[in-house]
Amino acid sequence: MIKKNIQNQFTDYGTISTILGKGTYFNGTLSFKKPLQVSGEFEGEIISEGFLFISEGAIVKANIKANTVVVAGHVTGNVVALERLEMQTTGKVVGNIKTAKLQIADGVIFDGSCEMIQKAN
Question: How many CB atoms within 10 Å of residue 118?
Answer without folding.
Answer: 7
